[in-house]
Amino acid sequence: MQKDKNLVLRVEDIHKKYGKEEILKGISFEIEKGQTKVIIGPSGSGKSTLLRCINQLTILDKGKIWLENEEVTQTKKNINRFRQKMGMVFQDFNLFDHLTALKNVEIGLVRVKKIDKKEAKEKAIEELRQVGLEKQADLYPAQLSGGQKQRVSIARALAMDPKVMLFDEPTSALDPELIGEVLEVIKKLALSGMTMVVVTHEMGFARSVANEIIFMEGGRIIDQGIPYKLFTDPDHERTRQFLCKITELYGKSEEEK
Amino acid sequence: MSDINFIREILLPPVLEGTVVTLKLIVASIPLGLILGILIAVGRVYGNRLISSFCIIYTLFFRGTPLLVQLFILYFGFPSIGIFFSPFAAAIIAFILCSGAYHSEYVRGAIQSIKSGQMMAAEALGMNKFKAILYIILPQALRRSIPGCSNEIIYLVKYSSLAFMVTCVELTGAGKIIASRYFEYTLVFLVVGAIYLLMVSVVTKFLGMLEKKLEIPGIG
Amino acid sequence: MNENLALIYQSLPYLLKGCAITIGLVGGALGLGFIIGIPMSVGQVYGNKYLSALISLYVWFFRGLPVLVLLFLFYFGLFSFLGLNLPAFTAAILVLGLRSAAYQSQIFRGSIQSLGEGQMLAARSLGMKKSEAILYIILPQALRISIPGWSNEYAILLKDSAITYAIGVMEILTRANFIATRTYKPMPMFLTCAVIFIILTYGGVKILDLLENKVSIPGYGERRSEF
After folding, report:
1. Does the residue A16 lie in any domain?
2. Structural domains of chain A, count
3. Which of A6, A25, C44, C84 is within CB 3.0–4.6 Å of A219 for a Cys-Cys bond?
4. Considering only CB atoms, which chain C residues are within 8 Å of B176?
5. What's the gap in Å between the CA of A185 and the closest CA on chain B?
6. What pLDDT was estimated at residue A253?
7. How far apart are CA C202 and CA C200, in angstroms?
8. What is the domain range of residue A12?
9. Residue B69 and residue B80: Cα distance in Å, rounded?
10. CATH of the domain at A97
11. Cβ distance of B121 and A142 shorter than 8 Å
12. Is A1 contained in some domain?
């Protein structure tokens, strides 16, 4: 367990039930520093639930999670300390509607990390610059486009200097033309060495950015491997079926372009 | 005696004194009632089962019974178990408790109308529930509850008149005393009415300006 | 404790007669408010600007004054001034009704306006006169939408009815007070009084909710007012 110093996140045998239905039936995987793992799979396979179990927004029924060799699941009290080290980006952005873009990025620093206000503001502006939005700093979420909102939410999560970033279908709620700008930011982040778990339907993105792709269905990991392998010669028939259907969908639109 | 003289010399002095009492009543009860309302709303939405149930029962009682009955219980009922309130104190306590219940419903509705994603995002950043409620939920919920709470505040300005029913001589009481002494009910209460209309208009205008000032594109 | 319970038990018949008075007050006021309120709301939305201004003045007056002041003004003042010798009960219904009309007219006005222009346009394009359109198209919808607001008005009127104590109407609170002062037992009496009001308030609202369900049109459920 203590072996790998490079292991950022380790997830072991996660089970989660909602009422009578078991959504997660024993998920295990691990990520090393700097890796990007992309989770794909049909709706209802439990992908979002899995991410929320990792930062304990949803309490899991059974299983363990380690962040940098510290067990997250043991501590009920200090969960907030762990959450600060895990950045989460939501499908619905969930920007704080009553705060400007700048304040959205600042608030975690000021209220949670208790950083000096001046320092926090400087850091916040820098994070917004990194995602290309320093000019929109004083705008409110209602005044931003979907793509801009999502980029602010990425800046907000990054400002906390997390050890791992969790992306929950970051582009699913965006208009097609806005997806590109967000994927650019995420790609840049991956290339800069951030450890990331990304749940997405964007296959082109998955292929180009993932170190490993995990295919989930019905609450279980069906298949995992490097992108090339999964897309060209997967071990499991189900994986092949799923990817064929998806690539058909996306493949067509690539041609039309 | 002509009407104008009557108004100026006999009516106005006590009525203005009464108005001062009314103003004292509302200045004391409005902010405290609002704060109580916020606490009850937060307790009801985020509290454990015990706190939540208490808040529900509290709201049920104070919204289900007339303010006048609550006043009578405080001023006439409590002495029988050894607790004595002055008319002014009884009035203020009743106003705070009663308007608190109404405010709490508006604030509660506003809190529940905020998407759950806001709380999730706050917790994802590492905020505990208390911080999330204080810095993320309430600033938005309070803006949304301004119309309803403004409504309740204006109600209180008018219902402060009931303080007279427990012998606290505010504006209405002062009017009644003069009116019954001189048999000039119509004139007196038209004047008293005019003063209430003035107070209500001023408060409405003020609250409208406040709402405009707190406006944020996208909420409020 | 036992003697308190006994007292409550003995007072119930007397108090329940007060209930009848209270319900009469509320029913009468709601009804009067309804009859006056609907034409007022129609006048405000579809009338000319003088009519509209007049109605707004009425609403401003009756909503701006406290109930207590209105009761004193009318019962002790205006009614005598006009030579009317009305008993307190009737006077109370009149005053509460006129006031309720002010509030109800705004509820209906809001509902009518929330329907949007389209309904009136469609009705007129079929050849209906304005009055027919209002009667057969606008009002049936507006009234259904108004039920939550109306239910709220019921609860408010019920509680305001206690204020008629001030002009001597023999409703629930007046009677409770009567017994309390004679038996020196204010707490049990006023608490009982409170319980009766709670039952009437929530019971009444429940009934109105059932009514709303009965007359609801599929798909209209979205327009809940906040209260």
Report:
1. yes
2. 1
3. A25
4. 72
5. 20
6. 40
7. 6
8. 7-256
9. 16
10. 3.40.50.300
11. no
12. no
Is residue B111 within 8 A of residue B141, CB to CB? The reply is: yes
Cα angle: A25, vertex A93, A28; to 5 degrees: 20
- Residue stretches of chain B with pLDDT short of 50: none
Shortest Cα–Cα distance, B56 to chain A (Å): 27
For residues A195 and A31, the answer to whether their CB atoms sit within 8 Å is yes
Q: Judge whether C196 lies within some domain.
A: yes
Distance from CA of C197 to the nearest CA of B (A): 6
The whole domain housing C36 covers 2-215
- Domains of chain B with CATH codes: 3-213 (1.10.3720.10)
- Contact assignment for A96 to B143 by CB distance below 8 Å: no
How do residues B171-181 score in pLDDT, each as one tens digit? Answer: 999 999 999 99
Collect all residues of chain B within an 8 Å Cβ-Cβ radius of residue C180.
Answer: 76
The domain spanning residue C117 has which CATH number?
Answer: 1.10.3720.10
Residue B106 tokens, joined: 């508006």
The residues, any chain, with a CB within 8 Å of residue B56's CB and separated by 6 or more, are: B44
Q: Which of residues 131-150 of B touch A (CB under 8 A)?
A: 131, 135-136, 139-140, 143
Summarised one tens digit per residue, pLDDT across range C119-130 is 888 888 888 888
pLDDT of residue B91: 97
- Which chain A residues are within 8 Å of B121, Cβ to Cβ? 88, 90, 94-96, 153
What is the total count of domains within chain C?
A: 1
Contact A98 B143 (CB under 8 A): yes
Q: Are chains A and C in touch, 3+ Cβ pairs below 8 Å? A: no
Residue corresponding to tokens 């109308």: B113
Residue type, position C105, single letter: S
Q: Which residue has the tokens 């405009």?
A: B212
Contact C190 B76 (CB under 8 A): yes
The token duo for C131 is 């009055």
Which of C64, C73, C155 is nearest residue B200 as measured by Cβ atoms? C64
